[in-house]
Design a protein that fits this description.
This protein is mainly beta. The chain is about 0% helix and about 55% strand. The protein contains no helices and eleven strands. It has strands at about 1-5, 10-15, 20-25, 35-40, 45-50, 60, 70-75, 80-85, 90-100, 110-115, 115-120. Strands 2, 4, 5, 6, 9, 10 and 11 form a seven-stranded mixed beta sheet that branches. A four-stranded antiparallel beta sheet has the order 1-3-8-7, with no helix packed on it. It is globular and about 40 Å long.
């Protein structure tokens, strides 16, 4: 089993920045990709970004490309999502997820999920 714990959410004004973290523990050796997803009120869950544990290859949704940066610290088993130039439409619960697949851009390919952290962007 793998446990994922997010932290770092909060309230920020539009144009501001925030960083959320995801610490993983347990059988992390089986993981290949870490991803971030979000769910805004009344909307479907949306892919945000992912990163390969071994190669550091990243992939972003068009809605966050150029504003968000995903990174990882292998020694700490932690993944980060740096969010800059935040917009009110970025308001959502952000979820960290872990996959055994090397390429995983969709939620169905993820095996483990965190509890989520709220990010609220005020206008």
């Amino acid at each position: 089993q793998v446990q994922l714990v997010e932290s770092g959410g909060g309230l920020v004004q539009a144009g501001g920045s925030l960083r959320v973290s995801c610490a993983s523990s347990g059988r992390t050796f089986s993981l290949r990709t870490m991803g971030w997803f979000r769910r805004a009120p009344g909307k479907e869950r949306e892919f945000v970004a992912d990163i390969s544990w071994n190669y550091g290859v990243t992939y972003y949704s068009d809605s966050v490309k150029g504003r968000f940066t995903i990174s990882r610290d292998n020694a700490k088993n932690t993944v980060y999502l740096q969010m800059n130039s935040l917009k009110p439409e970025d308001t959502a619960v952000y979820y960290c997820a872990a996959s055994r697949y090397e390429v995983a851009h969709t939620a169905t390919l993820y095996d483990y999920w965190g509890q989520g952290t709220q990010v609220t962007v005020s206008s």
